[in-house]
Specification:
Blueprint lengths: L3 E8 L6 H14 L1 E8 L13 H12 L5 E4 L1 H5 L5 H11 L3 E8 H5 L7 H7 L1 E7 L14 E8 L4 H9 L11 H10 L5
Parallel strand pairs: 1-2, 1-4, 2-3, 4-5, 5-6
Helix pairs in contact: 2-8
Length: 195
């Protein structure tokens, strides 16, 4: 019997943007995912600084994914209130969903730096990645972990939360096109990212 599939999409979501949502929707369609679970990091191992509080990041994430079928948010990493590594998060969901194949959604930029991940060889012995190719950061063919990857069948614009924060701080209205209306309004109303 074919296992049902579930994908974990972790990140700082500082802020969550339309690129995140597009990637999750495409992954769901391409790979017949029963659900996509967004996991907001308390403190991401590769991004020690956050610019909005955990509460604000979670609120924006909730606004961005509400009413999208089979999209959920987990408080697992936030509730730990510490750095949680990907292998720990994946094992946590495998324990909760023993009858599912657990995958992890990442961008090709993350795939290019995946060798530095904690216990990466353990991760690839148990799990696969769904990779979103970013136009300006395509994976190297020499990457030894490509064999553990499923690639979404399109490329995505190189939208980053860092770029959006810079636009917001500069009071540049272009930021609006990268965010859902509710998230943009929340950022403006709460004066996040210096806007």
């Amino acid at each position: 019997m074919k296992l049902k599939r579930l994908a974990v999409f972790g990140g700082s979501f500082d802020p969550v943007h339309i690129g995140h949502i597009e990637i999750a929707k495409s992954a769901q369609q391409n790979f017949d995912l029963s659900k996509v679970i967004f996991v907001c990091a308390w403190a991401a191992p590769h991004k020690p600084q956050h610019f909005a509080s955990a509460q604000d990041r979670l609120k924006m994430l909730s606004m961005a994914v509400q009413n999208i079928e089979n999209f959920e948010i987990s408080l697992f990493e936030l509730s730990c209130k510490n750095v949680v590594y990907s292998y720990q998060t994946l094992d946590y969901f495998q324990k909760i969903y023993p009858d599912y194949e657990i995958l992890m959604i990442i961008g090709s930029d993350s795939l290019n730096g995946i060798k530095t991940w904690k216990k990466i060889d353990y991760i690839v012995s148990k799990y696969k990645f769904i990779v979103a190719n970013r136009t300006e950061n395509l994976p190297s063919a020499a990457n030894e972990y490509i064999k553990n990857c499923l690639f979404i069948d399109r490329e995505f614009e190189n939208i980053s939360s860092k770029k959006i924060r810079a636009l917001l701080a500069a009071k540049d209205e272009q930021a609006q096109k990268y965010l859902t209306p509710k998230v943009y309004r929340y950022i403006k109303e709460n004066g996040l990212y210096g806007c």
